[in-house]
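Table S2 (continued). Query chain:
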Amino acid sequence: MAEVERIAKHDNRYKSENQMRLWRNPRKRAVNNLIEALDGRDIPVKEVDHAVALAHKAWWISRIADEGLSLETANKDFANMAGMLRRYYESIAQPDAPEPYHRVVLRDRLKEDNRKQEIPVDWILDRWFAPGAFDRTNAEARDILLISIETGCRQSEIYDLPPNAIVLDGPIPHLRIGLEEGENRREAKNSASIRLVPLVGVALAAARRHPNGFARYRGRSSYSAAMNSYLRANGLLPSPEHTIGGVRHTWESRLKKAGVSAEDRGVSMGHSVKAIREREVYGDAMPLVERLEIARSVMLPVPDHLR
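Corresponding output:
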């Protein structure tokens, strides 16, 4: 694991301490699970062959049956092992490097898509925008959620923002989602996620209340659990299956309903346009003024108490 971290040092150079923890822990867990699958044997890397990978898979099948764990958790193990092995063999320039985890995956053909449930717009307007809805939580938690409602940003993209990434004094107030170095270093999810996000409606009002960002949650990973817990405890989620992660899907559906093209939706949300087009992308990025027009086209009314 230490060798893989050394090899990946350049790729991980923008990660914050929390992002490094989130990168490191699942890989350590995958290695430990493989060792357990091999009855405690810690074998050399070059002995990890397809038979070993299948033993890892069999161990997970048994554990899922006994403990009710998810297939996704097992598949993350396999993907992390495959990625670490690939990095290692590339680092030693091994020709025809083995791929022991090739096609090692668990699928359930009867399981429905586990896409996050959208938060209905009427629910946002009637319940979340109601006076007093967030009186029992802190202002940062409330305003991170409000910004996500009108930007479609991942909540982590919002609470990890350094002060200089919240631009309020220009002609178009916006967030700058990207790579950061120094004290507030952070890594975007991928290159497509690097973008400018215009602020409108409740998002603009919320950002103005926090021009220096969200120090309470920056560099941590406690926000989603805390906010979901608050909403659930106060009857502010439509069902047990709903979480704040559904806000991003709601925003995309709002864009779609407003007639925004799939490509422009992807650009606005930080999705890969190359994947949407299924070909290379040429030309300049979408100007901020066009992003603003899109955001305004779906902007929700701002209640007086949230201005």
